[in-house]
Amino acid sequence: xxxxxxxxxxxxxxxxxxxxxxxxxxxxxxxxxxxxxxxxxxxxxxxxxxxxxxxxxxxxxxxxxxxxxxxxxxxxxxxxxxxxxxxxxxxxxxxxxxxxxxxxxxxxxxxxxxxxxxxxxxxxxxxxxxxxxxxxxxxxxxxxxxxxxxxxxxxxxxxxxxxxxxxxxxxxxxxxxxxxxxxxxxxxxxxxxxxxxxxxxxxxxxxxxxxxxxxxxxxxxxxxxxxxxxxxxxxxxxxxxxxxxxxxxxxxxxxxxxxxxxxxxxxxxxxxxxxxxxxxxxxxxxxxxxxxx
Length: 293
Hints:
By secondary structure, the chain is mostly helical. It has one domain. The protein has helices spanning 4-34, 41-67, 73-99, 103-118, 122-148, 153-179, 187-215, 238-247, 255-273. It is elongated, with a radius of gyration of 21 Å. The model is unreliable at 281-293 (pLDDT under 50).
């Protein structure tokens, strides 16, 4: 039986990160179609496909390394991966927020340069470099989520991966809809609300990392139990298990884990929801010059 919380956690991650990568490919292909260069679609898709494949390899390699270490080194690395995953997703959220307004124009400008300066195969490199960043971020974040669900065993890990796969498949559909010109999807609201969900998921990863470091004795400050509501909302079953897998809930958390969770959510959420200035769009050509093979 699948873990619903882990499934939803993986789905949100795959959907959010996948849409970012899919939008990049959709913008590039849409611009190529607009300028009459659609014959170069296969090269863009090859570059994107290689980036996805490399991201999977990197994710599997990290997972194997983490799972193959003896205690307490496994806990050390798991805690590190959770912290790294939270940092990566936080950086990604604010990068996307800053770049969202001018991302389309920037990509179209880079397509022009690739066609005029680097030849058509430069489009494959452009797609690869644009997608690989999203792919590695996704791999690191998913490995961090799997590490946080170590107590759930193979069921939790499988649920995260299935959720991520479903999310990525949905992201491909959204990317195609954007390429085809569908305007029913409010991407601004999509990124805003999935970003908020990812902030809570990242907070859960940080609190779980602090718990692991307290368990192995690396951190002694704040190790006292803040409260215990296990009799009301146990973390081993039902809603508590769902919240544990999705947001790192613990029925008897330590003071430090509560402080880290609350501090991260309050600080990052306030900064993320704060209005920001639009990024300037670079000038673009309406028609890309012919490419060299």
